[in-house]
Design goal:
The protein is 24% helix and 37% strand. It contains three helices and eight strands, in the order E-H-E-E-H-E-E-E-E-H-E.
Length: 191
């Protein structure tokens, strides 16, 4: 499996994180495939650098991690094109819930093991002051990538684990999380 650092674009001015709740693995794949077709058919926005789609391991949804040159470039595209881009998906997979988009910047990455393969990615949202407990070396934790919201009050972490069992053994509660596997990834300069 691809490591998260392989996905990071250091020229990104913003990293957008959003979830789509679909309810089933089949609906998640259908939505992801439809979106991939939309992206392939449309002209790539000038400010979008990369887009990555993750499937939740419980089959209930998707996680999108997009890297843009700036928030302004993304907002200009969203105002002009977002509705059209998702309307076909909503027709094919009605009832997708979209709880919202988080605008972040990659603050830091703590890599404990750069050699082993990541079996699962775990996304957590927490107060920025609670991050330190999530980056402590733990059996099976390969790396943690800390993203901060613009005001710096919230953090979204994407942690790489060897497998779900290692993550289960280390989870003590208090922080909500979802597990994902990478489904599709591209950089716009490689389309």
């Amino acid at each position: 499996m691809t490591r998260f650092l392989d996905l990071v674009r250091h020229d990104a001015g913003t990293a957008l994180v959003s979830e789509w709740l679909t309810g089933t693995a089949e609906r998640s794949r259908s939505a992801a495939d439809a979106l991939m077709q939309e992206w392939a058919a449309a002209e790539a926005p000038s400010g979008r650098l990369a887009q990555h789609v993750f499937l939740s391991t419980d089959g209930t949804g998707l996680l999108f991690y997009a890297q843009w040159t700036s928030d302004e470039d993304h907002l200009a595209w969203a105002r002009a094109h977002r509705a059209r881009a998702v309307s076909r998906i909503d027709t094919l997979v009605p009832g997708i819930e979209r709880p919202g988009l988080s605008r972040t910047r990659l603050h830091r990455s703590v890599v404990h093991d750069a050699e082993r393969t990541a079996g699962v990615f775990v996304m957590s949202t927490m107060a920025a002051g609670d991050v330190e407990g999530t980056i402590v070396p733990t059996p099976g934790l390969l790396a943690t990538h800390v993203h901060l919201t613009p005001g710096g009050e919230r953090a979204i972490t994407i942690a790489e684990w060897t497998d779900a069992a290692s993550h289960d053994a280390a989870t003590t509660g208090g922080v909500s999380f979802k597990r994902y596997t990478l489904y599709h990834s591209f950089s716009d300069d490689h389309l």
